[in-house]
């Protein structure tokens, strides 16, 4: 089970998350900040882990159980 949260206040709109895991993350059309599409994805776990690593602002938090 994977649980994701994304802190829009920390996000700097770099877009790595949406590039790496496009079914889980998107970017707001207005400010470019992260939009969390799926906080508990059943798939794309490897891509989500890569997105957490790649995020330059540490805005994505991941819990796995
Ligand atoms: S990778 Fe991080 S900083 Fe970039 S859009 Fe996603 S959450 Fe925001």
Structural overview:
This protein is of the alpha+beta class. The protein is built from 2 helices and 4 strands. The strands form 2 sheets. It has a two-stranded antiparallel sheet with strand order 1-4. Strand 2 (about 25) and strand 3 (about 35) form a beta hairpin. It is globular. The model has no long low-confidence stretch (mean pLDDT about 95). Iron/sulfur cluster binds near residues 6 and 55.
Label this structure with key terms.
single chain, 65 residues, alpha+beta, two-stranded antiparallel sheet, 4 strands, 25% strand, binds iron/sulfur cluster
Low-confidence stretches: none
Give a short account of the largest sheet.
2 strands, antiparallel
Quaternary organisation of the protein chains? single chain
What is the distance, rounded to the nearest whole angstrom, between the alpha carbons of the first and last residues?
5 Å
How many β-strands, per DSSP? 4
Order of helices and strands: EHEEHE
Supply Rg.
10 Å
How much helical structure, as a percent, in the residues? Answer: 10-25%
Tell me the strand order in the biggest sheet: 1-4
Mean pLDDT: 97
Shape: globular
Bound molecules: iron/sulfur cluster
How many DSSP H or I helices?
2
Structural class: alpha+beta
Strand content: 15-25%
């Amino acid at each position: 089970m994977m649980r994701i949260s994304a802190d829009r206040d920390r996000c700097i709109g770099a877009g790595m998350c949406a590039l790496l895991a496009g079914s889980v993350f998107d970017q707001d059309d207005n400010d470019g900040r992260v939009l969390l599409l799926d906080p508990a994805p059943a798939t794309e776990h490897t891509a989500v882990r890569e997105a957490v690593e790649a995020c330059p602002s540490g805005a994505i938090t991941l819990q796995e159980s």
